[in-house]
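Notebook entry, structure prediction.
Reason for the run: the old model in the group folder had no record of what sequence produced it. Starting over properly, with the input documented here first.
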Amino acid sequence: MLTLLFGVMLLFMFLGMDIGISMGVASLVYILVKAVTGSLLPLMIIPQKMVNGVDSFPLLAVPLFMLMGELMNRGGVTLRLVRFARALVGHITGGLANVVVVTNMIMAGMSGSAIADAAATGSILVPAMKSAGYPVAFSAAVVGAASTIGPIIPPSIPMILIGSMVEVSVGRMFLGGAIPGVLIGIALMGTSAIIARRKKFPVEPRATWGELLDSTRDAFLALMIPIIVVGAIVSGAATPTEASMVGVWCAFLLGFLVYGELKLRDIPQILARTAVSSGAVMLTVATATVFGWIATSERLGPVLTQWVLSVTHDRFTVLLLLQVLLLILGCLMEPIPILVLIVPILFPVTNALGINPVHLGVLVTINITIGMLTPPVGLTLFLMSAIGKITILEVARAIVPFLVVLIASLFVVTYVPDLVLWLPNLVMGAPK
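New structure, fully documented this time:
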């Protein structure tokens, strides 16, 4: 019956259906076939499981973080962060490419979404880099690569979803992503510097102390929002959902009262965009809950665990195979479907091998964000192609050096788990 379940899902995906709908149809076909063969399962179980899947207080953080990102983008926060980053690192070899990376590292602490960060920074910095003499393909590539930091540095929408599916501490994963996110940012800046030096790209004039202080003062309140949100979560003062609500209010008040760029007439459109984005995520989570329940009832987890243990007991070999599998899936599927499909099946297997779930959660997050840069389904590639008004092939060629660095960083984090685990253990104590 598992063959039927996965076969129907893959068939509908091949026909171009959304992964959420494909899993829902596969679950329906499974239940109907069960009814024909005499094992009666009421059809009401589908809506019941779907509602149960999204009836979760932690999952409420997903649309709230999306809303916070929309408010920040519309409220003029991104422009101020770009100005701050330009004054801070624009004069270093790599010029505006460094500004892109630093801006995305800061934006990562606000939206938790790679696409949101790429859209916000790309719409400002790709035209600016083009005007400064950078090739459009390089500009689009560096924005796309830097946007992968968005879900790694806390807060992170994928980490919230992982935590809701497999009972892993979201606060620990948030802290676990901080050091890898910063290291990836430094690696991307180094790559940009090497390319810029070889191709003699321009460098921004060094900002005066007055300009640096002025840009810092202008961006100070925006810089405080991720500190407040993440600090509330890791200190235990608030849950991710409560902290995301605080972030929404901070973003609204900052854009509406302080900067004055957010207007009340903008709110309906912002809410509509958030509803569409979060609705797509929640539909996938809902149908994946039904799909996962069926897979569990067919004992997929124990069967897969037994098979893996019969092949190898070496957790580093399993991690290597897992990273390769996720990189391949990233070329074929969007990030959220990979999460809801793979994580509930994957974590029982890795738990049996003694792999730390926080480490694994961060690795999966890094991996699926890299997948957003790989054709044919890389969402960030499509977005940067549209922003830069160039072909996807041009962006894909320019992004290859950054992809190599990102994959190398992924394997460093894979085999040096302390890069992930040291900070959570320091701040929150070693898990019992």
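Summary: The chain has a mean pLDDT of 85.
The old model has been moved to the deprecated folder.
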